[in-house]
From TrEMBL, chains A, B:
This is TetR family transcriptional regulator. It comes from the Bacteria. Residues 43-62 bind DNA. InterPro entries: Homeodomain-like_sf, HTH-type_TetR-like_transc_reg, HTH_TetR, Tet_transcr_reg_TetR-rel_C_sf, TetR_SbtR-like_C. Residues 21-80 form the HTH tetR-type domain.
Amino acid sequence: MEPSSESGMCKRARRLRSDAEQNRDRIVEAARKVYRREGLSASMAGIARAAGVGIATLFRRFPTRMDLITAVFEDAMQRNRDAAVAARDAESAWEGFRGYVETVCALQAANRGFAEVLTMNYGTAKVLERQRQEAFEAFTELIGRAKREGRLREDFSPEDLPILLMANAGVLGAVGDAGAAASKRLVGQMLRAFSESGSEPLPPAPSPKELFRGMVRQRRSGGS
Amino acid sequence: MEPSSESGMCKRARRLRSDAEQNRDRIVEAARKVYRREGLSASMAGIARAAGVGIATLFRRFPTRMDLITAVFEDAMQRNRDAAVAARDAESAWEGFRGYVETVCALQAANRGFAEVLTMNYGTAKVLERQRQEAFEAFTELIGRAKREGRLREDFSPEDLPILLMANAGVLGAVGDAGAAASKRLVGQMLRAFSESGSEPLPPAPSPKELFRGMVRQRRSGGS
DNA sequence: AACCAAGTGGAGTGACCTATCCGCTTATGC
DNA sequence: GCATAAGCGGATAGGTCACTCCACTTGGTT
């Protein structure tokens, strides 16, 4: 709306004061840690505390939760996009496919926030939306190659990837410690289903004990 | 602790007054509806309101959330157990297996609360724990039969079922309207992975539009 | 009909959350 | 060095939640 507010730098309306810039970074860094552990529903107050700043500072810099999420996960989403592009250009399409799927699911396992970001709808966050779109397009091209290679089943659909990501996030969210093992197992099974030969090796199943004992206790209220 | 409080009836300490009994039933019925739609994190106050009783009445009858969950889902869990036993005794082990997996996943799709109940750890709710245990044991026997039949892959593990249930719950939780279609697709892929021949038919993938548009907006706070 | 324990609803408590207001502090340009 | 706008953080408003307390009501029994 306003025509060229000051100098050429139009990305940020005005340069931040140096201490403010530092606080911003501290907030993003703290949020990164908290989101990784607790997921996107982590409280704003908790993030501010972890960053060592007041609540107001957080809200001044990131008026909506989505602004913070965008700032935190922009680079992870970029790496995801780059991984998809690299897979698309890999020598063996199937190896690229398998590697990409395993990688992104492992990233989900390592970062609860990222697992949720990958499976949510970013209403207004155009940056994340574009990154996902680009990754998705690269992945779709990869699918074509892998099918022509004869290694990926013909009826595989691009939508099977987001479905797998949502499924994987579900497993990771439902089971705590044994999450990584269960996730690997799920991904292994899915890759088998995707592969034309169906002869993919399968990671070991987690033991019943770690699986059941790892399940999150209750959704709410720890019951006397 | 107390030796034989009064009469032989030791299941309920004392018979409820008739109006109290009626209120109890209304609460359970209301909770059934609310849990189905909103999942287990539905608020207690909302359930009381839906039942047309005061909050105190709800808490007097069901001191912890788990007590209410148990009362609501005991019969669904029993039906689940019965389905597993029936599948175990089915003529074709593979058909029993496939049918049971599809059935329980469809039940999850139809009932958000049940989807969560199937993937959680019931700390003190011994009834639910026993029902799950019995279902799990029947299912484990079924697995043996299906493997001997040569239709189920040798490396299938009983733990793959809970993993699938958690995955399915994740898909259903992440996507709203298109949940059923995405869930069916997931189950189809998994059954392919489980089957020795790998020639299971695959339900159609949901369209990208309904899949992405169906994704839940945000975890919290609807962004300005 | 009268008694009363069992039952009831709603106000109240305290915890936690997002989000804003406002008086004080400080980095920066001159 | 000084003026001042930018930035700061704590207090606070206003929401939701689980859960309790208590004065009143009512079903069942005699």
